[in-house]
Design a protein that fits this description.
386 residues, alpha+beta, Chitinase A, domain 3, 2 domains, five-stranded antiparallel β-sheet, disordered N terminus
C-alpha cells in the first residue's frame, strides 16, 4: 500500500505531485489531457529528423527543488500573499470517517491488489462475465484467416466481437460446445463482408476475481513488514487516518485558495518545469511509437506539440501556483524537509522504509517537496483544530 506518484500531494495541492494512497484529486490534472493513441500519420522519426523535444528524455523530477524541498532560489512569499490571520475551520463532515468508507477503501485499494483469478465452471455465463472460449469459424463450410482461437479471453457485453456473437454465449455452461452464427457487416472486408459465419465454440470456464479474506492473519502476513500493521483493527485505524487526513486537507485547501492571493507573473523556471513535466508523458508515448512529439500530437488532434503546449497552459499555471502556495506556507511557518526529516517520514508517506526505491527514479528533491507539502497541511490541520 504505497503512495501514488503524480503532480503533488492531492490533499494540499489540487493536482499534487505525490499523494497518500487513495487521496482524492481536487481538480483534473493535465495527465487527463495526455493523448495515448498512436498517431494516425504512421510516419516514424529518424536520425535525420531530430525531435526538438528530445531533451525531455532526461527530464529530472528534482531539477528545481533544493535540499529542504523548496524551489531552489525562489522565495514563494514574493508571489503568494498570506493574510495576517488565516481563518481555518474544519466541518463535522471533514472530521468524520464512516466505517463504510474505511471498508470500501480497504477492499478497493488494498485487497484488490492481492486478488486472484478463479476458474468457475458450476454456473451459466452471464453478460459482464469474462470467459475463456475456443472457437473455429467457417463461411460456407470453409475456414477463414483469423477465425480460429483457443483459450481466448472475452468479456461478454464488451462489443469486441461481431454483433450477436457474445450474446449467444450467455446462458451456456462451461464445457458446452455450440454453434454461434453471425453475419459479418457489409463493409467488414472484401472476403467476408455480408456473409454468414458459423463459429463452433466451446466455453471453457468463467473467470472471476477473488479477493482474499480479511483476517488478522492475512494482515500480519501481508502488511506487517512494511506498514507494521498487525491485525484488522490496526489496519482499519490506519485507513481511517488516511481518509481523515484527505477529508480535512481537501476542505482546508479550498479555504486557503479563497484567502491567499497569487501574483499574476510567476517565476519562469517554475512555469517551464511544470510545462516539461506535463510534456514528458506524451513525449515518452511518441518514442514508444517511433515518431516525433510533433507527429504524435498531429495524430491526436493537435496541429503540433506547440499547439498541445498552448492547450495545457492552464494546467501548468495551476500546478505552479499550487507549488508556490505550499512553499509560501512552509516559509511562513518555518517548515522544512531536510534529509533527516525525509527519512523519518518516508515509511508513513510512501509505505516503504527504503528511500532508494523512489529516489532513484525521482530524486531526493522531489520526494522532499512531497513530504514538505504534507507537513505543511498537517500544520494547517492543527491550526484549524486549535
Amino acid at each position: 500500500m504505497k503512495k501514488h506518484l503524480y503532480l503533488s500531494v492531492a490533499a494540499l495541492l489540487a493536482a499534487g505531485m505525490l499523494s497518500a494512497c487513495g487521496a482524492t484529486q481536487q481538480a483534473e490534472t493535465a495527465e487527463t489531457a495526455t493523448p495515448s493513441a498512436a498517431p494516425a500519420t504512421g510516419e516514424t522519426a529518424t536520425a535525420e529528423s531530430a525531435d526538438p523535444y528530445d531533451y525531455l528524455a532526461d527530464f529530472d523530477f528534482s531539477a528545481i527543488f533544493d535540499e529542504n524541498g523548496y524551489i531552489d532560489g525562489v522565495t514563494a512569499t514574493d508571489y503568494v500573499t498570506i493574510p495576517g490571520e488565516l481563518e481555518l475551520t474544519l466541518s463535522e463532515e471533514a472530521n468524520t470517517v464512516s466505517e463504510e468508507s474505511v471498508e470500501s477503501y480497504i477492499e478497493e485499494n488494498i485487497l484488490s491488489s492481492y486478488q486472484e483469478t478463479a476458474q468457475v465452471t458450476d454456473r451459466e455465463a452471464a453478460e459482464g462475465d469474462t470467459v475463456s472460449i475456443d472457437f473455429a469459424g467457417t463461411v460456407d463450410g470453409v475456414a477463414f484467416d483469423g477465425g480460429t482461437a483457443e483459450d481466448y479471453s472475452l468479456t461478454l457485453g464488451s462489443g469486441k466481437f461481431i454483433d450477436g456473437f457474445e450474446d449467444q454465449i450467455v446462458g451456456h455452461m462451461p464445457g458446452d460446445t455450440f454453434d454461434v452464427v453471425v453475419t459479418f457487416p457489409e463493409d467488414y472486408s472484401e472476403e467476408l463482408g455480408g456473409k454468414e459465419a458459423v463459429f463452433e465454440t466451446t466455453l471453457n470456464y468463467i473467470s472471476e476475481t477473488v479477493l482474499p479474506e480479511l483476517t488478522d492473519e492475512w494482515v500480519q502476513e501481508n502488511l506487517n513488514s512494511e506498514l507494521e500493521l498487525s491485525d484488522v483493527e490496526t489496519l482499519k485505524s490506519y485507513v481511517n487516518g488516511i481518509l481523515l487526513y484527505d477529508q480535512q486537507a481537501n476542505e482546508l485547501y479550498g479555504e486557503l485558495a479563497e484567502q491567499l492571493t497569487v501574483a499574476e507573473e510567476l517565476p519562469q523556471e517554475v512555469m517551464q518545469y511544470f510545462e516539461d513535466y506535463y510534456l514528458q508523458t506524451p513525449y515518452l508515448y511518441s518514442k514508444m511509437y517511433g515518431v516525433t512529439l510533433d507527429e504524435f500530437m498531429a495524430g491526436n488532434g493537435f496541429e503540433n506539440a506547440a499547439a498541445y503546449v498552448e492547450s495545457i497552459q492552464g494546467y501548468v499555471r495551476s500546478a505552479a501556483q499550487q507549488a508556490l502556495i505550499a512553499q509560501a506556507m512552509a516559509e511562513t511557518y518555518g517548515i522544512v524537509c531536510d534529509t533527516e526529516t525525509m527519512n523519518e517520514e518516508f515509511l508513513g508517506q510512501f509505505g516503504t522504509s527504503d528511500p532508494s526505491s523512489l529516489t532513484s527514479s525521482f530524486g531526493e528533491g522531489y520526494l522532499k517537496m512531497s513530504i514538505l507539502n504534507e507537513l505543511v497541511m498537517r500544520h494547517m490541520i492543527e491550526l484549524a483544530a486549535a
